[in-house]
Amino acid sequence: MIGGPTERGKVTLHAKDLGINPRTAMRWWKHYQETGKVTYKKLQRNPGRPNPLTPEHEQHVQQIVEKDSQLYADDVIDSLKSQFEDLKISKPQINHYLRNNLLISIKKPNLRPYDKKH
Q1: If the chain, 118 residues long, is cut into consecutive pieces of 10 residues, what is the mean pLDDT of each piece?
Q2: Among residues 2, 44, 62, 110, which is most buried (max CB within 10 A)?
Q3: Which residues, other chains included, contact 77 with Cβ-Cβ below 8 Å and sequence gap of 6+?
């Protein structure tokens, strides 16, 4: 049998030790008292959007970056689209891939306002 808190203060104490909300601990304890079973839910994390890049695409990106490290994200996307016509990838997706997988950051274009002549 699982030893459990009998007073409200002990629930809070145990909940803090476990790093959970005291109300959650109370709900779990009540469920255990009623059923005698420990609730177990497998944590299902949202994997998010699947990576649109195949290993072949990734290899192409690595080759591009190795040739010229002074690239813009648009240059990488243009090169990918010219090589692989069916690929659909956005600038944020390619930036995320480069930053998290290749551990590089792509520079942004430096746009300056043009000089106005009066």
Answers
A1: 57 84 86 81 68 88 84 85 87 84 71 62
A2: 62
A3: 89, 91, 94
pTM of the model: 0.49
**pLDDT of the residue at 56:** 92
CB atoms within 10 A of CB 51: 13
Query: What's the pLDDT at 92?
Result: 86
Would you say 62 and 76 are in contact if contact means Cβ atoms under 8 Å apart?
no
Q: What per-residue confidence (pLDDT) applies to 95? A: 83
Closest by Cα among 58, 93, 100, 60 to 74: 93
SS (H, E, C) the chain: CCCCCCCHHHHHHHHHHHCCCHHHHHHHHHHHHHHCCCCCCCCCCCCCCCCCCCHHHHHHHHHHHHHCCCCEHHHHHHHHHHHCCCCCCCHHHHHHHHHHCCCCCCECCCCCCCCCCC
Are residues 57 and 84 in contact, defined by beta-carbon separation less than 8 angstroms? yes
